[in-house]
Amino acid sequence: MNRVPKARALEKVRITRCTDGLAATPSPRSKIMEGITMKYDLRKIMVRAWQIFRKYAVSFGEALRRSWAVTKAEPINAARVQMAAAAAGITAAVNTWSGWKSLGYEVAHGSKALFQVELIYASRGDGQVYKASFFSVDQVRAMA
Description:
Elements: E1 13-18, E2 21-26, H1 28-33, H2 42-56, H3 60-88, E3 94-96, H4 97-102, E4 105-107, E5 115-120, E6 129-136, E7 140-142
Antiparallel strand pairs: 1-2, 3-6, 4-7, 5-6
Helix pairs in contact: 2-3
């Protein structure tokens, strides 16, 4: 009985033997998927779903729903921040206090927020909005 191994679904290249050694040629699947672009990064959605699942102790289906809600809220939140920054006349890079902290910066003590925006906080699953305060790059310094 001659068994042919099943091809992996996400195989990118096929290794074949040539007269001068091994050669990598694109698999038929990668040629088909070559021109297709994904609207959403599914890996990022699944990673976020696992983080929500572990953090909030909800069912995985609920965590996946919340992850999709966060993904769909991201462009809306980005547009709201951009519009508020333009309305305030800010051209420098802006971020929240926790955003600057995750990037390795701290907001200078006594700095006032340049503007506030209502953003969608979808990872809790209630679809509530919260008011986020934004600080510019001029108001932060590298953490010591």
